[in-house]
Each structure stands twice: as C-alpha cells, then as structure tokens.
C-alpha cells in the first residue's frame, strides 16, 4: 500500500475527517471484495499523484461496521469525498484511475 494512506477507525475518524480542512477521500472496502481489490491500484496511484493536496484513507467495513453504518455504506467499494469536514461527493462501485482523478480534480 502507498505511503500516506491512513486507516480510519472509530477512534480517529472524527479527528481525521470531520475536523480537518484538507480534502480527504475515504475508500470503504473489504479484503474479500473483488471490485475493491481491482480498484486498489488506482487508489494507490491517486494517493501518490495527489499527495499533499488530498488525504487518502481506507475503512475496512468488516472491522469498522459502525462507521460503515453511520456513513450509509450499503455496497463496496464506496468512496466518500470530504471537503471542509462535509461530504462533497460519493461513488459506489469501482473507479478506474481516470475516473478517480476526475472526481479528485472536482474536489479541489
């Protein structure tokens, strides 16, 4: 996994997502999820390309069920894009690198 991607838990979610002015994208995933695995390289690449401009985080839905429920994640992968502590965009389903870059450009 690329440097700069953080793993969120109930303990650090509020501080890392809701109380930071930096844009952040969160990947809700599971280790057994095929589409999640297929999207992982694009997410890692985006973390390298957008590092310093956008923060990148992952939430394992099997380990952090309460966060998945509180964010109304019904399928995975789901990406949530936050700006100024507010959700700015949401995508369910895998994105390729170009689609993810377009969403990140719009976030900035």
Number of helices, where a helix is a run of at least 4 consecutive DSSP H or I residues: 4
CATH topology: Glutaredoxin
| % residues in beta strands | 25-35%
Oligomer: single chain
Counting structural domains, the number is 1
Q: Output mean pLDDT.
A: 94
Name the CATH superfamily assignment: Glutaredoxin
**What is the global morphology?**
globular
Largest sheet, spatial ordering of strands: 1-3-2-4-5
Classify the secondary structure makeup into a structural class.
alpha/beta
Q: What's this, in brief?
A:
The protein is 36% helix and 26% strand. With 108 residues, it is of the alpha/beta class.
Blueprint of the fold:
Blueprint: E1 5-7, H1 13-18, E2 24-29, H2 34-49, E3 55-60, H3 65-70, E4 78-83, E5 86-92, H4 97-107
Parallel strand pairs: 1-3, 2-3
Antiparallel strand pairs: 2-4, 4-5
Helix pairs in contact: 2-4
What does the model show?
By secondary structure, this protein is of the alpha/beta class. The chain has one domain: Glutaredoxin. Helices cover 36% and strands 26% of the residues. The chain has 4 helices and 5 strands, in the order βαβαβαββα. A 5-stranded mixed beta sheet has the order 1-3-2-4-5. α2 links the parallel β2 and β3. The longest helix has 16 residues, at 34-49.
């Amino acid at each position: 996994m690329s440097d700069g991607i953080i793993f969120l838990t109930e303990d650090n979610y509020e501080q890392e997502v809701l109380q930071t002015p930096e844009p952040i994208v969160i990947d809700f995933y599971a280790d057994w999820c095929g589409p999640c695995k297929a999207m992982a390289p694009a997410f890692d690449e985006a973390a390298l390309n957008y590092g310093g401009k956008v923060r990148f985080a992952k939430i394992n839905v099997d380990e952090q069920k309460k966060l998945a429920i509180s964010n109304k994640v019904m399928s995975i992968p789901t990406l949530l894009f936050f700006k100024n502590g507010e959700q700015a965009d949401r995508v369910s389903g895998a994105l390729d690198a170009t689609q993810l870059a377009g969403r990140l450009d719009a976030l900035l």
